[in-house]
Amino acid sequence: MAYQDLLSYNNHAFRIYVTWGGFLLLKLICMSFLTVFHRIRKGAVANPEDAATVPKSEIKIDEDVERVRRAHLNDLENIPVFFFAALMYILSDPDPIVVAWLIRIYVLVRFFHTFVYAVYPIRQPARALCFGTGVMIKFFMIIWSIVCFFHF
After folding, report:
1. Is-above-0.85 flag for pTM?
2. Which of 3, 35, 101, 132 could serve as a FRET partner for 61 with CA atoms 20 to 30 Å apart?
3. pLDDT, tens digit, for every residue of 91-117?
């Protein structure tokens, strides 16, 4: 398949990438709102101007707020790498069924990672299994793409 066809809605793999990638972007945006929710609920703001606008709040560090912030930071560190790895993978013209499964699994483990980290904390290894699964998928996509594009 020609490269311009790989990045079109005629390519099932690209449609999966855009659709499920959209879910990841929405999740990333919602993490900001989850942080705000916890800040208001706990009365823990980061800046003096925020303390003036949120009743019964003060500048303080709250563990629940920090947990959500760490989960958000983890998303910011991992999701962009996934987008690039998945795009490289799609450009290698893989089997669309494999693409669909890898992308869906990655998105689901990122959602589950956030759930067990920030929403309803569960002891390890739940979070580590989610993170590890996502890392393995990214490694596979990157290595597959390198092998396909770099002819020894």
Report:
1. yes
2. 132
3. 998 999 999 999 999 999 999 999 999
